[in-house]
Amino acid sequence: MVPSTNTTSTDTSGQENPGGLSGWLQPQKNRMFILMTLAATAMFIPLVSNNYGLEVMTNVWFYVVLCLGLNIVVGYAGLLDLGYAAFFAVGAYTTGILTSQFGVNFWLTIPVAVCVSACAGFIIGGPTLRLRSDYLAIVTLGFGEIVRLIARNLEITGGASGLIGIERPSIFGFELSQIVHFYYVFLFLAILACFVSYRLQHSRLGRAWQYVREDEDAAEAMGINRVAVKLYAYVIGAIFGGVAGCFFAAKMTAISPETFMFQQSVLILLGVVLGGMGKIPGVIIGAFALVLFPEVFRDLGSMRMLVFAIVMLIIMLYRPEGIWPAKKS
Amino acid sequence: MSIQDILLQQLANGLILGSFYALVALGYTMVYGIIKLLNFAHGDLYMLGSFVGFIILSFLSDYIGSGWAGILCTMVLSMIVVGFLGVLIQRIAYVPMLSAPRLSILITALAVSMVLYNTVMAFTDGQYLAFKTDLGFEGVELGNVFVTYTQLTLVGASISLMVVLQLFVHKTLYGKAMRAIAIDQDACRLMGINVNKIIALTFFIGTSLAAAAGIMAGTYYGSIHFFMGFVIGLKAFTAAVIGGIGSIPGAMLGGLLLGLLESFGTQIPFIGTEWKDVFSFGILILLLVFKPTGILGKTEIERM
Amino acid sequence: MKKSLLLSSVSGALAGLLMLGNVATSADLKIGIMVPTTGSEATYGKDMENAINLAAAEINKAGGVLGQKIVTMTGDAACDPQQATSAASKLVSADVTAVVGGYCSGATMPTMKIYGDANIPMVIPAANSTKLIDINQGNAFQINSTGFDQVKTAVGLFKAKGIKKLAIVHQGDGYSEDLAKLTREKWTAMGNEVVAYEVVNKGEQDQSALVTRVKSKAPDAVFWTAYYADGAMVIKQLRQGGYRNLIAVGDGSNSPKLLEIAGKAAEGIYCFSNPTVEYLPAAKSFHTNYKATYKQEPDAYAALSYDGMKLMADAITRAGSTDKAAIIKALAATKEFTGIAGPISFTDKNTLARSNFVILVAKDGKWLLNK
C-alpha cells in the first residue's frame, strides 16, 4: 500500500495552501484530541475484552478498511461499484496462493497483491468509464461475479473448497497467531487507511474527484483529465481492498469463494452509504454499525437480519445522506 | 442425439428461460424508465408473488383443484395482491426518497429487498416449500426436440402478458401518460397529468408481472424459497441492461437474448457449465463497452 | 450535540458487546454447540441443536457428568466462514469445556483453527469434507463417515448396477465439489468413464440447458453430490427432459423434502446416507423422545448429533476431569462406543473407523433401505 498511495499524497500535499490553516487550528486541536482519545481507547480494548469482543472488533477494523477503500470510488469520485468484493478477493487469493502453494513469505505477497489488485482496478475501470452510473452498477456487479466464479472454477485457487493452510505471518520472528495480534494489525491498517484517505481527500486528486463528481463537463473544461482521475479512484480503491484481503487471508488461514459473493459487495457499500458517503468519520460509523448491529442482536436469532434491514430502511428514510453525512460546501 | 438436435433443444430451452427473464426484466425497465430507480427489490417481489400464490392456491385447491383452472385464478388474484404490495412499497419507501441522492435510493431499494426476504424467511423458517400442482410431464415431440405442455403454456402466458402490456402502453391514455412522464415529469404535471397516480400504476403493473413470473416458476419448478428472487433478479437486471434499460421492447429482447446466451453457453466445447455465467457476464460487459446504452437504449447525457 | 449522542450510543453498544459472553456461571460444565441456526441451512442446524440438547437433558437427568450439570450454549455458524469464526470465538471466550457441532464443511474449516489453538475437544457430527482431515490439529473428531467412505459406497452401487458411463453434477460449494471430485477420481481410476462433470449454480431454478447437455452424453447414471433443495429441481427437470436412467444423490440430499418437491420424478432414485433415525433400531426411544419434546420428526443429522453429545459426556467421564487435553486423549481412545447410529471408534486421523453409509431408495414418496 505504501508505495503507490503515498506518492500521490506527498506529490500534492506541498501544494496545499497553508494560509487558511491558522483559523482552523482551534477546532483542529479539538479534533486531534478526540482522535487521540479514540485511538487510545482502541489500543486498550484488548485489556478489558475477551476473545469474542476482540474478534468482533477486529472485524470492525477490517470493514473500516474496506469501506474506506470503497468510499474512494463511491464517495469521492461518485462512481457506483457493486463488485468491490472482487478486489478484496484478489488480495486474499494472491496471498493465499503465494503462501500456501509457492511458500512465499507473507510480507512479500503484499506488494504482489497491491500490483494485482491495481491491475484489477485498471481492468474494470478502463473500459467502463464511458458508462452511465446505472450501467456501471451492472458492469461492476458482473465483474465481481466473474472474479468469484473464476476463483471457484480454477484448480490453483482450490476450487469451491478454496485454499486452506495459509501461513500466518510473523514480524521479527514473532508469529501472529492470537486474535489479539490480529486486532492490532487490523487497527493499524484502519488507522493507516484513515490517514491515507484523509490525505487523498485534501490533495489535488481529491479535489479533482470532487469536481468530477459534481459536474463532469465543467471539470473537464477546467483542465481535469476526467478519465485519468476516475481511473485513479478505481485503482486506489482496489489497492485498499487488496491489502485488506491479504490480511484477511492470513487471519482466517482458509478462504473460499463463498466469502466473496455479491452480498459481500452490498454489505461494504451499505457501510459506506449508511454512515455517510465521502466523510471519513461517517464511513467509520457505517462500518461499526455494519458489524456491531448483527452481533449485538445475535440473540434475536432468525429475526436478527430482519430487524437490521428495518433499521437500515428507517435510517435511509430519515437520513438519506447517511448517519453522519459530509457537509455540503 | 445429433449436434443439430442438441442445438435445437437448447434453442427451445433458451427461449423458454428467456421469456421468464423478459417478464421479470419488464418490471425493472418500467420502473427505471419512469423514475430512474433501479428497484433491487424487484426479484423479491417475484419471490413474494410465488409465496402469495402458494397461499392462495392452497385455499383454492379445495374448490377448483390445482389444475390449470386453479393456477389461472391464483395467478390473477396474486398479481392483484402483490401489485398492491408493490404500490405500498413505493409509497412507504420510494416516494420520500425521490429527491435524495441516487445512491441513497439504491440503498433503500436494497433495504426493502432485505426486509422482504427476511420477513419470508422468518415466516417459513427458511424452509423450501413444495408447490404442488396437478401438472404432468406430457409434451410434444417436434423432431427430436421435446417440450412439455406446461412449458408451452407458460411461454404462451408470458408472451400474451407482454403483448397486453405493449398494447396498454401504446394504445391507451394511461400508457401515453407513462411514456410522457418518462420524458419529462415536470412538463407532465403542468399538462395536468396526475404524475403520482401514473407512477403508482407503473409500480402496480411492473410488480404484478413479476408476481406472474413467480407463480409460473412455482408451478413449473415445483419449489419455492425465500431467496429464490435473488438469482432471477440479478439475471433480469442483466437482461434489462442488455436490452437498454428503460425500453420495454428492449427488456423483452434482452430477456430472450440472455436466455439463449445461457443455454448455448453450456454447450460451448471445453467451457462447460461452470463457466456459463462468466460467459454471459463477459458478453454483457463487452456489449456495454461497445454499445454503452444497451441494444435498444437511447443515448442521453447524464448529470449526477 | 448529535455527535456526542452518536458517540455515546456507539460506545454503549461496544460496552454491551464486551460484556456479552462474560456471563460466567458456577460449577456447571459448559459445552458449546456450533450449528447454523440462521440462513439457508438453518433447518438442519436447529434439528442438530435440538438433538444435542435432548442428549444433554438426558445426561443431566441421570446425574450429569462427574457430578456437574451440562449447560449448552449455541453459536450460530450460519453456514458462513466469517460468521462461524465469530461464533467460535464467542464459544471459546465463554470458556466452554468442549464443542459439539459443525454442519457446513466450508464454515467449519476456519473454526477448527480457533478450537485447535485453544485446544478445545470437538466432536463434529455432520461436516465431512475430506479437507477437514488435513487441517485437524488433533482436537477434532469426526463421527460422520467421510467423503472417502461415501465414494466407496457410491462406486459400489454403480458397479453392481452395471453402469458404464457416469455423469456427475455438483453445486459449486466445498462439500459437493469434494464429493464430486473424489468420485470422478475413483471412477476413472477403476477404468470407467465420466462423460459429464457439471456444476449447477446455487439458487438457479432453470436447469434445462444442463439437462440437454447431460442427456446428449447418454450417461447410464447421474450422480448429484449436493444438497436436496437444488437437487429436487435437477431431478425433476432431468425426468421432465426425458432422462430415464439411474439417478443417485449424496448424503446432503437425504431429506423427505427432496421427495416432496420432486414428486413422482424422484421415484426409484438412490441416496447414499449416514444412518438416519428411522432405519436405526437402537434409536427407537430417541425417536419418540424427540417427537414428544419438539413436536416434529428428527431430520438427517439428529441421530449423529445426539451421539456426539453422548460421546463427549462419555469421554469426559473416562478422562475423570474437565482438563481439555485429558478429554482429547479419552476421545482418541474411544473403543466401540455404542451410539444409536452405530458403534464409534476412531482412526489415527480422528475419523470414524468404519463406514456407516447405507443406501436408500425412493419408493412411493418415502426413503426405504435398499436391500
Description of the structure:
The complex is a heterotrimer of chains A (329), B (304) and C (371). Chain A has helices at residues 2-13, 21-48, 51-76, 85-102, 106-128, 133-153, 179-201, 204-214, 216-221, 226-252, 262-275, 280-296, 304-318, and strands spanning 170-171, 174-175. Chain A has 329 residues and is mainly alpha-helical. Chain A has a domain at 64-261. In chain B, strand 2 and strand 3 (145-148) form a beta hairpin. Chain B has 304 residues and is mainly α. In chain B, helix 2 packs antiparallel against helix 3, helix 2 (42-64) crosses helix 9 and helix 6 (173-183) crosses helix 8. Chain B has helices spanning 3-35, 42-64, 68-94, 102-124, 149-171, 173-183, 185-190, 195-221, 228-243, 248-265, 276-290; strands at 129-130, 139-142, 145-148, 223-224. Chain B has a single domain (3-290), classed as ABC transporter involved in vitamin B12 uptake, BtuC (Orthogonal Bundle). In chain C, 45% of the residues lie in helices and 18% in strands. The relative contact order of chain C is 0.13. The model of chain C is unreliable at 18-25 (pLDDT under 50). Classes of the chains: A mainly alpha (329), B mainly alpha (304), C alpha/beta (371). Chains in contact: A-B, A-C, B-C. At the A-B interface, helix 6, helix 11 and helix 13 of A face helix 4, helix 9 and helix 11 of B.
> Do you know the CATH topology of chain B?
ABC transporter involved in vitamin B12 uptake, BtuC
- Share of residues in helices of chain B: over 70%
Oligomerization state: heterotrimer
Class of secondary structure makeup of chain A: mainly alpha
By DSSP (H or I, 4+ residues per run), the number of helices of chain B equals 11
What's the arrangement of strands in the largest beta sheet of chain B?
A: 1-4
Indicate the mean pLDDT of chain A: 85
Order of helices and strands of chain B: HHHHEEEHHHHEHHH
The main pleated sheet of chain A reads as: 2 strands, antiparallel
Helix residue percentage of chain A: over 70%
Radius of gyration of chain B: 19 Å
Distance between the termini of chain B: 54 Å
Question: Helix and strand succession of chain A?
Answer: HHHHHHEEHHHHHHH
* Approximate shape of chain B: globular
